[in-house]
Amino acid sequence: MVPMYEGSIWRPPSEARSLILQATIGCSNNTCTFCGSYKSKKFRIKSLANLKEDVAVAKAYYRNVRRIFLADGDALVMKTSQFIETLDYLYEEFPNLERVGAYACPQNLLQKSVDELQMLQDHGLGIIYLGVETGLESLLEKVRKGVTRNEMREAGSKVVTAGIPLSVTIIIGLGGPDLSESHARETASLLNSMSPDYVGALTLMLVEGTDLYTEYGNGQFHLLAPEETLRELYWLIESLECTTMFRSNHASNYIPLGGDLPQDKSRLLQEIKTALKTGNLKSEYLRGL
Ligand code: SF4
């Protein structure tokens, strides 16, 4: 049997019970200063023939597959025709399949039309995960995301217009103490203009081997203290005006938060205030677990 996976596999928390298939290897962008997920992988798109070999292996273990997540970092980089062929094949092979999801880089989405995205939805693409990280123009540039704020907005809005559920992540602490409030407020304003279905707020954890880790080592970048992290999260939620399901309950976060916005906004803000007052936060050495 061929080994199914190449290198480490990353997936959104909500895909924990999904069958993961690597439609691509690595990330076609791979420039972000904070991200070490795909540093060791040379990017390539898998052929459908190769993917079929993985499916044959998977079928020996998993029979009743309802959800599939297409890894690695940006499966949406595939040409629309190949993506459609892949989706059709997967729905044929797994009769109980209900949803296929994938990560996208903003660049992938900018290269696709809304019509193409709608076609992908018609063929069963049920959710797209997009790393927005920040809405602060200068910070997007600093972390080398490779797109401007307007391009990021366009990328996310295309998914929403196409009617595909959009789940975005942003990173608390990415701008360090100096940019903390502007990062929070500008990110909220970008999300307000994009209206994603889901927002996940992670907290920055430095990854060895990344440029940001080196900047930190050189004293060019400073981490937020836990209380500053919560204050930034407070500013973010306070400024969010879109209707979305908000989660900040990742292993990286100091307190678990979750609710529907706008109706749960005051509760979420109160929970942050209480945590700041009591100091009841996850200890540093338990973060990431
Ligand atoms: S685009 Fe996403 S996966 Fe690729 S390097 Fe940036 S954060 Fe990592």
Walk me through what this model shows.
With 289 residues, the chain is α/β, with parallel strands linked by helices. The chain is globular, with a radius of gyration of 19 Å. The strands form 2 sheets. It has an 8-stranded mixed sheet. It has 10 helices and 10 strands. Helix 7 links the parallel strand 7 and strand 8. The protein has helices at residues 48-61, 80-93, 106-110, 114-122, 137-142, 149-162, 180-194, 211-217, 226-239, 265-278, and strands at 19-22, 24-25, 44-45, 67-71, 99-104, 125-133, 166-172, 198-203, 244-248, 257-261. 39% of the residues lie in helices and 18% in strands. The mean pLDDT is 95. The chain binds iron/sulfur cluster.
CATH class: Alpha Beta
N→C terminal distance? 32 Å
Q: Give the names of the bound compounds.
A: iron/sulfur cluster
CATH superfamily: Aldolase class I
Shape: globular
Mean pLDDT across all residues, rounded? 95
Count of individual helical segments = 10
Structural class: alpha/beta
Describe the secondary structure blueprint for this structure.
Layout: E1 19-22, E2 24-25, E3 44-45, H1 48-61, E4 67-71, H2 80-93, E5 99-104, H3 106-110, H4 114-122, E6 125-133, H5 137-142, H6 149-162, E7 166-172, H7 180-194, E8 198-203, H8 211-217, H9 226-239, E9 244-248, E10 257-261, H10 265-278
Parallel strand pairs: 1-4, 4-5, 5-6, 6-7, 7-8, 8-9
Antiparallel strand pairs: 2-3, 9-10
This protein binds iron/sulfur cluster.
